[in-house]
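Pilot study result, target chain (476 residues):
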Amino acid sequence: MAGFQLEIRTVPLIIVGVYILAMLAFGFIVGKYFIKDSKDYMLAGRRMGLLTLGISLSAVNVGGGSTMGVATRAFGDWGLSAIWWVLAASIAMIPISYFAPEIRRTFSYTIPMVINKRFGYVAGTSSAVLGVVSLFLLTSSQIVASATVITALIGTPWVISVFVSTFVILFYTCLGGMTADIYSDMFQFSVLFLGMLVAVPFILNGVGGWDAMVAALPDSQMDFTRIGWFMIISLIINYFTTFLAGPEMMSRVFSAKDERNARKACVVSAIVMCGMGVLPTIIGLAALAAGAPDAGGALIWATDTFAPQVVVGFMAAAILAATMSSADSNLINASTIFIKDIYQRFINKAQMTEKKLVFTTRCSNVVLGLMAMCIALFRVDIITMNMFAFAMRSAGPFAAFVLGISWKKATPHSGLAAILVGSAAAVIWQLLGQPLGIMAVVFGAVCSTLTFVGVTLIESKMGVAPAPSPEITEES
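Predicted structure:
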């Protein structure tokens, strides 16, 4: 039996191996021939068009949490309503399109750079630290998702799978930076969508069809709004705040070739993501109906059990595509923030050549990636880790970034006050178990916004002049 298992896994292993080699080769080519300076490495040269940017915005969101994580939730207590994990993200992209042109006009590399211009280096550095920590936590969750695929595919021990996943992610990221990341997103997202689309009919057939699956599940599992409208609205607000104050999403907006493309790309992303929540939800429900042994591996188990091995290979490649797309983006953005907002500001203030700046950013990728690997070894739940990281990076800086750009009368101390209060509120709310079903990031963002508005109104009445607007120069 053991030999038979090894034999039937040869095909998917070959497919995944070819996919990984192809992506590494692409990263090598981009790194060698298309990375001319730090702007190419960090922001893809600020030349991204509508379709490329729209799909990239979708791909960076649809990672391990939106594939493995959604299937796990559907298998568990969310049921059919797990669809909302991605559908809410799609809805959130619409209002974000309103802010995109203003964000692009700052000509910044990072969110902390914008905050620093408006509210000073203390506020900017605070948001930078929060951003770096949260991004390597998010990278860790993608390593967990990749390692889960490898372990399920070839049965390697967890530690080995984590090491392999980290090596592939680091190698690819260090080679091509943001340029390779964005251009490969179109291919990776296509692999992800087609891989799951092809697998679903086989999986449904394996459990006896849709009607048989529904009959095998409790009625509550098929409730589209099982999680409740309060949670659904909270998810939409969660994505709105985390996307708008999220370094990996806003880096795409910074990389747009103009303001018009920045706005329209957000709408394209909303359309593209609409259908992505359905497929992993169906797979998770089918795994539950078929008696899968655990929720964490529901997606891979269902595919491996019911689909041909060629489809298993494409599904595994699809998940790796999702995790690689998210992980390399998280890493390059964490490194960009560290280099631009911490290293060059406090550690090495001397003027650096473009070649040295790119090299230093690559070294930062390695360090942060290894830190993320250490966390991944503990195998923390993907969605739990993602939610905590979202709260850290977005709750506090949300008001300072968004209102700092859009509210011209904002006063100098409102940004730092909002960051401190919002971040503290989010952490405390998370530790309390998110009372009343309110997500920590939502609670923190509300506290951040109220603090920002309150401080601005108080300082304005005291005669304090508005903070300087973010400088709009190509050299920012």
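One observation from the pilot: The domain at 16-394 is CATH 1.20.1730.10 (Sodium/glucose cotransporter). A full batch analysis is planned for the follow-on phase.
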